[in-house]
Amino acid sequence: MIKDILKDAEGRMHGAVEALRDNLKLVRTGRATPSLVEGIEVDYYGMPTRMNQLATLSVPEPRQIMIRPFDAGSVNDIIKAIQKSDLGVNPVSDGKVIRLNLPALTEERRRELVKLVGKRVEEGRVAIRNVRRDCIKDLKEFEKEKLISEDDLKWGEEELQEITDKYSDLLQEVGDEKEKEIMEV
């Protein structure tokens, strides 16, 4: 019973770390990366479609993303979607490929992005603490119903705290890695 709760907690906390990783992929660093645009939704024949399903994405230069649509007719739709996104980059097209030239980040913008990363890491910590709170509540409920002993409750809480610490540290590592990437000139 306790092991099931701990396993569930670990799965949910792992999900919080993965959600942070996915979220941070969208935060721009000094380098170009296809993950900046692959999630942008393009209105393709009336259907919202992710960019990576409509085009090949590549990085020919450190500060450039090249988008080569599978269907030449979708170039204008892709350009509109990029302009609507909060990427802040003007797409340049020759009718067949779209190039996004990413300007260098200013020191001020880097600091703003680092603050944003810190905020996202803290949101992840809150999610992990919520999982811990829910699991402790379940464990106490089991003890109250005499399904587990007081010693089992104490053991379960200690194990849960170890799992919580492990995933909190992992969140911090992911955040630190992204901050380092952002501050790299």
Written account of the structure:
- The structure is a single chain.
- α1 runs antiparallel to α3, α1 (2-25) packs parallel to α4 (150-183) and α3 packs antiparallel against α4 (150-183).
- The chain is elongated and about 70 Å long.
- The model has no long low-confidence stretch (mean pLDDT 89).
- It is an alpha+beta fold and 185 residues long.
- 57% of the residues lie in helices and 15% in strands.
- A hairpin with a 2-residue loop joins β3 (55-61) and β4 (64-69).
- The chain contains 4 helices and 6 strands, in the order αββββαββαα.
How are the SSEs placed, and which strands pair?
Blueprint: H1 2-25, E1 41-44, E2 47-50, E3 55-61, E4 64-69, H2 75-84, E5 91-93, E6 98-101, H3 107-144, H4 150-183
Antiparallel strand pairs: 1-2, 3-4, 4-6, 5-6
